[in-house]
Amino acid sequence: MRIHIIIAKELSSLIYDRMYGLIEKEENLQYVSHEEKTYWKIPSMREIFFEVDIKKPRSEKEWIGLFDCCLKHNDIRRGDDYLEICHYSEFGNRNDPFVIVYIPAESVIMPRIKIGDFVTAYGSGYWQLIDIKPKIATEDYTGEDVCWKKGQVLGQWAILKKCFTAKMKPRIDFSYEDFTWISPVSDEILAEIEKYFEEYPKYRQKFENAEIKLRKTITNCYLNLPEEKEEAFRTVLGHLPERYSIADVWKTAAEYKQYISKPPTKYLLNFFAYPWDIDGNGDLIYTDCELVRI
Hints:
The chain is of the alpha+beta class. It contains six helices and 18 strands.
């Protein structure tokens, strides 16, 4: 099985030495190749492949444990066919990892997460997965490593309900994020959650019955609308259907489309939608809008 490691050039020799020491048998480790390339928009990276001879795939926890002693990973990324363990510098961010360990999915026993499970997520604290929605591209995109077409299914959105902070303080909140960012809580944390619910049944009831309130995404449109036309334009917006695309807006308000402009402008038109609410053409479907004077 091949492990794919991408390392910031200045760290490559250090990580290579430590990786070499991690493998039980030296003959199971083979330095295959290295070269500079761009990965995740990071210049001057070094690409290394390690051949590791194992009889069965490792669990995600085992993989993390294997690399944690040399990488001190800060993040996990998951995809349909890979697991990535990332390390960042103290001055870096999620877009600038120093080290990426790329592990093919067939070599990872991926956690099976279902609706109702408690998980960790990009946001701090502990959450319950309450729904799963498709993640669909709303425009064509071509980059160095990836490309997709409008309407293509890119993954899934995880709809989450927060139950506790990272310090196990009760707190109810709602969020959604890419499904690859969530992980099952540990057995220890799950036991703490269940114990708290048993000891405080009123909070459990409050949590289970909490009304779902999700923030919508915002699409902006800048307008140099003459002030004398503001009232009429607001009236037209008030006659939009309950659900509509941007194309529908400018069919209804065709005479006002001419005022679309780049900032700075006098007005900002905001449209609100959930990112999974997509029509058959791959366009976002909006349910609310507001015209704001800037």
